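Weekly structure sync - notes
Attendees: PM, LS, DV (DV joined late)
Agenda: review two folding runs queued last week.

Item 1: First target. Sequence and structure tokens pasted below for the record.
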Amino acid sequence: MIDSLESDQSATVVITHHVLDIHHDDYENWLKEIGSIARSYPGHLGVMIIRPIPGATSAYTIVIRFDTRDHLLAWMGSADRNRLIEKVQPLLMEEDRYLVQSGLDFWFTPEGIKPKFPKRWKQSVLTWSAIYPLVLGISLLVEFLRRHLGIADHHYLQLLLITGVVVWLMVYVVMPRYTRLVHRWLHS
């Protein structure tokens, strides 16, 4: 599945693989190969691999980032990538799954420049300073509306609503504006 992104924006593909237990070593070798080949494509900005945590998770997640949507699509449709996917398929429990999306790092990248990410601690402070008041405010609003409308207290349903509204506000309203406001500090 590929979301519609503007051609001048950076783009990321997030690939999820569930590897058969007996093939983890082969898969690790495959990861080295795909990383090396992806780096040779125009506009490549980086590869990040999130390995499973024994006893907690079972999926590998590969994040490959390009400077434009067109460069990403060229990689995704390339003969090299198709060959690599055919090669890895016997090692997997299920088919190759991927999603093109923007993530937290995109909140911290001004439009029109090559991505240079601020220090992680600054990203954390900025994100926390935006999330805390949103969670507090939305929680109070949901609780007020629940009581005013006489709706029964459903803790998990309220959390679902609160987190959904907070995430939507963070992605579409708060962080794009907030990062522009504190850009100088964030990138100093």
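Item 2: Second target, run right after the first with the same settings.
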Amino acid sequence: MKIDEALSLFAGYQHSQNRSVLTVAAYQTDLVQFFRFAAFELGQEFETLTPDLIDVYIVRGFLGVLAEYGLTRKSMARKLAALRSFFKFLCRKEILQINPVQRVASPKLGRKLPNFLYLDQVERLLRAPECSDLLGARDQVIIELLYGSGLRVSELVGLDRENLDLEIGLIRVLGKGSKERVVPITNHAIQAIERYLGMRKDPFNILLLNYQGTRLSARSVRRILDKLVAGISLEQHVNPHMLRHSFATHMLDGGADLRSVQELLGHTKLSSTQIYTHLTRERLKKVYAQAHPRAKETHRPQVE
């Protein structure tokens, strides 16, 4: 089986597993990059390459070249994950007998804690939109839902009116992998949505519209957020995902249990949510070091 046939078969499998179009495209891009490298290493044309020609040394050589070009460990791990999935699929289909990636170790990743906003910063941002006009009222809805419900920006812009149940305060969200979940919305968000929809004179089912009357894009949400942040002179850059991080952090700070936050965020694995416990611990350690008189000592007492 030629590489292009194998790639097409793998893409079809991913679609059957409800992988998003963006995820499938990203995997294909990483795989094509690898196989072009492999074809060059083997002195073959890409079109004539077959999966059985790949061995562990080619995979390791590929990662080595990526490292030389300064690719981050996170990006290298993502590309290796694409290779793992692809070759595991071929072995399961008995197209290959040996998985060349099986003995390749993943790059060790340093755990980067997510950035978040403190409560007073969020409150300033929530007061930033000018709600007297239609676009300002819409921007208020954006902030309220990103922070108040911890939505991903893709989930936010995908909302339709039919996804809302304002009477009981719940919204139905389509998350990663086309998985649906139901999340609560705050009274502030309900009021903001009712104000915004009350100003609209159109029949469209889409919740968030741009000035042209079509669905707002994720890129537009980022630009709106940049404008609001600039208006209140907030010192740090804020992106939509930072409001999701802030939602999770403030929930845990307020006493929410990890499983509940996991469900609200739509995380498949609990480990994805556990990073916020590390965040709150680091913040508590910092507060402790700054506030407690015994923690302020610069030198450890010597034991004689």
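Discussion on item 2: The longest strand covers residues 170-174.
Action: LS to circulate a short write-up before next sync.
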